[in-house]
Amino acid sequence: MSAHHVLEHAPRDRTFGGPVQVVRDRPLIAFFVLAFALSWWPALLYLTVGSAPPILGCGPFLAAVVVLGLTSGKRGVKALFRSMLKWRVGARWWAIAILTPVVLTIIATGLNLALGAATPDTADLEKWTSVIPALLLILLVPGLGGAWEEPGWRGYSLPRLLGRHSALKASLMLGALWALWHLPLFLTGEQHWSDLLLVVAASVVVTWLFRNVLGSVLVTMVFHATNNAFSGSYVSQMFHGSDSVRQSWMLAIVWGAAAILVALFAKSFRTSP
Q: Left, alpha or beta for 176 (phi > 0: left; psi -120 to 50: alpha)?
């Protein structure tokens, strides 16, 4: 059974009661509540000691494992892990997953420079060698840089939203919750508020990718890690002050344009899974 279509099939034992039964009765709602709770608890440490990260990036992954364990048992959890290792999707889709965030970031950067941003100096440009190590760290270490959000957002919640809603509506609903999930990062200044729009737009693009790779969470993890390593850890660090703010808005606009193109013209996005 594909992770794309894992259903909550655990027996409804009404004698069990309590929080476990709540999860079994409302698994998708329970997932989102747990994803936020398991991700936001470090914010309490951040407020008290100031040195902790404001958010735990692998919270959605942990939430998916908990909910699947309670609703589908080992079978559901194993299916999620299989989707996180599914690499046979075709070279074309691997190229799209890696190049899309790179190309969109380059376009946004070009717009930023055209609008007056200071040209990055040679020392900044030479830091490109750090992109691949950063990508690998983000991809392999839970909680670093976002890739481990994907087993929750795309591996668990997206297939269930797609079972009830159109691809566009499911993407926007998930995108809104995904954007809200980043709230501690906005409040601490680690991300610009324009990323609210960027995240919703990216949700549309990732849904399109996820459907075309037949539910490979690994591909979306690489996509996410590539974007965060190249755009976040490399290119965006070249800009400061108003140039940095403008860069974030250019990224939001470019990702928004990509989302509109996907919604309007991607045939696989409009049809049923």
A: alpha
Instruction: Please state, in angstroms and rounded to a whole number, the distance separating the CA atoms of residues 111 and 252.
Output: 12
User: What's the predicted TM-score (pTM) here?
Assistant: 0.90
Amino acid, single-letter form, for residue 158: L
Give pLDDT tens digits for 16-63. Answer: 568 888 889 999 999 999 999 999 998 888 777 766 788 999 999 999
Distance CA 6, CA 104 (A): 33
pLDDT tens digits, one per residue of 112-140: 999 999 999 999 999 999 999 999 999 99
C-beta separation of 182 from 57 below 8 A: no
Query: For residue 199, what are the CA distances in angstroms to 34, 171, 172, 211?
Result: 20, 10, 10, 18
User: Could you tell me the residue ranges of all domains in the chain?
Assistant: 3-270
The Cα–Cα gap between 31 and 27 comes to 6
Average pLDDT of the residues in 142-167: 94
- C-alpha to C-alpha distance for 269 and 16, rounded to whole angstroms: 40
Could you tell me if 104 and 201 are in contact, meaning their C-beta atoms sit under 8 angstroms apart? no
